Amino acid sequence: MRAVWCAARAAVRRRRLQTLVIWLVTLTSTGAIVVALGLVDSASAPFDRAFAKEHGPHVVAAFDPAKVSDARLRQAARDSGAEAVAGPFAQAAVDLPADAGNRELAGAVTIVGRPGPGGPVDRVDLWAGRWAARPGEVVLNRQPDWRTALGQRIRLPSGTVLTIVGYGYEMSRTADAWVAPAQMTALRPTATQMLFRFTDASSQSRLRAELSTVTSELPKDALTASQTYLTLKEQIGATARAYAQYLMAFGFLGVVVAVLIVANVVSGAVISGFRHIGILKALGFTPGQVVAVYLTMVSVPAVVGCALGTLVGNVLARPFLRFVFTGLDAGILHRSVGIAPWVNAVALLGMPAVCMAAALVPASRAHRLSAARAISAGTAPRAGRALGLQRALAGTRLPRSVSLGAGLPFARPGRSGLTLAAVVLGVATVTFATGLATTMTRFGETGNDYDVTVYASRVSHGRVVEAEHGDRQLDAMLRSLPGASKVTARGDVEAHIAGSVQPVMFEGRRGDLPRLGDVLTEGRWNHGSGEVVASSAFLRRHGLRVGDRLVVEKGDRRERVSVVGETMETDGRLLVGDWSSFTALAAGERPIAYHVKLRDGADPAGYARAARALDPGIDPVVSGSNSGAETIIGSATLLTAMLAVVAALGVFNTVVLDTRDRRRVLGMLKSIGMTPRQVTVMTVTSMGVLGVIGSLVGVPLGIAGYDLVMPRMANAVDIVLPSSLTDVWRAGVLTLLALSGLAIAVLGAYLPARGAARLTVAEALHNE
Question: Could you say which of 90, 95, 560, 565 would form a disulfide bridge with 555 (CB–CB 3.0 to 4.6 Å)?
């Protein structure tokens, strides 16, 4: 094997271009695969581990205590055959004002009476203090990085005072706070909570069937709300799955390009190295050792590229994972989120294995050749192919250099086929990335109907400073500033759907821009009181549709509303209504922000400075770009550029091999008068033909990839993309994409074509 290694090492040094191509393509594809598989794994694995550790509930159900007693709920749970049950627990929704002693707790809070943190279902991690053992004590559901001290008192709207005696955490979010069961009478519970674990929790349909078994003997409408753990799991991992979709597409394209490039490189090395193969065999190398030389020649850059690609993928995955796991209930997962060992193992072992498999087929040709035949094949002129087609092209009115070049790819159909496939995938990648970038750009621009957001308060030196002027005064002042065209006030309050354990964000709008850049995907906008528009994610997570009615609660206030429209919004808590509906739920609440649309030509930064001078308590912010859209566009552009360069390098490699194989032919053509410019045109034309064919095949393939991946990305984050965002294939765009294959081919062919043009007749005809 020492002789094999020496021969392979010499081949690596001699074929620097092919080594660079293999190294680059394996690095690119391995890095994309590591990040994509890491996101796929992180979308579920950390949640599964944490959920299993706390023995979380598969279903959290809320029942109406006026329709079903606790004793009957216990009996129904026993009869259902559930694996484990916890409850019944009294549940109350409390609207906690900002002056309750802790501003961080303000809003709609779900409080549950529970005797302890343990039990057969939903084991709370009591990470600070102790459990509430008597009335007047409360345990808050907070992640372990919470910094509020124990002993703080919270005054409820009813006058009840609760002292914080502990902090616990459970990711199922069955409650925002827990108190002793004896405390619940004073809180006037409106629901009874039951927690279930079932033997078969593999799908939403199975969980619904199991819950139906529990409620089959209960009074009609006793069940007021329910939520499965799969909904929470999908919510936490949604962004990761969305990113993984397009990264997996790039990773797959990279693997296929790697296979084609490696096969092309090894095939070309075998064909151009017939004499070298014969000499090796004459020196005593066995057929297996000769094959081992070529496989080692490929494996060296492939292993180095895979190792660096794995390292780069791990480095790039960290900011991706931090970005996609920001939000509700995700902080506790950060410590368990990362690239799993199996992902690195697949990358480090799988990609070199794929490259070796791709090299094995062309390398086996060297195995079959005898020493004498290999040496003679390496010195004798090679017979041409497709002579009939070349003669037909010669009979056309095309310039001679163009007709000769157009026929060259058909002389070596195997090599041309591999090169064509690489060009096709390069064009498909460019097409797919163009559609993705266009859609994401439009998605990022959907929230830019306004230019400046003026917040009605700001944070200064750790404390909140409120605006000095009242709501109507501030609205009028903002309208009076130079450049202002339209102003819309926005208020947000946390509320609950009747019987639900999860809070919703009810948003009220008043003014000139009721849409604020939202994209309506179904139905219409609300026209008055009692009508709301909901986000796509909200409707999916609550099993609702446009036209359904629901009751929104905030404290002792209830508002019955009808869903009249659906917006393309990823916030699964968002309901948007008019200002009258907002004030009906939250009387006395003032807007938290004012969205300002400026006249054409007005300076947003100048308007923000002028607004800040009016009131030191407001915080004007110029509208920025969508960071998520920018991340996808930036990463997709980088991966596309790398794969396009790799495809061009594949063309480059093919032209170099063709030039070496046709040195005699080039010498003869030059000897009878072909100029260097004509040699360049002939060589570039030969690859241009492949570029044109590659565009014809690659553009539809890229469009098909876009149609496959984009809906999956949207489904991952529970949104519906309207046609205005997905209708990206216009005539001008398709024309430019059709030229991308030609550009890749010409870019890869030009430099070696110029090198061939500079060959002298003596150099070209010199016997190797």
Answer: 95
